[in-house]
Input
Amino acid sequence: MKKGFIFDLDGVITDTAKYHFIAWRDLGAEIGVAVDLKFNEQLKGISRMDSLDRILAHGGKENDFTMDQKEALAAKKNTHYVELLQSLTPQDLLPGVKEFLDAANAKQIPCAIASASKNAPFILEKLGVKDQFAGIVDPATLHKGKPDPEIFVKAAELLNIKPEEAVGFEDAQAGIDGIKACGMYAVGVLSGEPLHGADLTCHELTELNIDELLQK
Ligand code: B16
Ligand code: MG
Output
């Protein structure tokens, strides 16, 4: 019997990847690196600085910037990204998310967020669901990003449960790998690319039966 649900944010609760893409594409244009939608797939679930490193490597510019310059580039991208987030409303929740959270809350099954995004609390506030989460892992406290399981282990700790007592939801391969690496049950939310190693996959949360998931 499972005792808690742990959610990734971007691609599971809402689709912020399109805003990350616009902000990285525009920053890339400024420094002469083309960021297209296909390459953007590789940035899903990856932290801000790791995303910048991947973009620089993609453009053969990995040695062109000092750490201070990279911090400034990442901050510039984030300022643009946060501007784009201002338009978020509860309408931007992905299908079935509100209903799933309401059902979990009604059953007193606690939910947590395990997102690489430092903007997660602000995004959840804009979406009107922040109060439905008992915990949000602070990614600034992590030593390693996904696919390391650390973020999922911390999320389970926030809920006072063991990783194997939780169900984790992810849209990125790095996230599925992290969930499985700590013995958690993994639900993969598909958006095009296949997800390897997930215990169950769906295209949206409307397809899921919460009582069946709790029995896993
Ligand atoms: P921020 P997730 C991830 O969210 C995004 O998928 C990834 O593209 C982004 O770089 C990362 O958050 C960090 O976000 O710049 O807001 O701190 O999928 O882990 O919810
Ligand atoms: Mg994601």
Notes: The chain has a mean pLDDT of 96. DSSP finds nine helices and six strands in the chain.
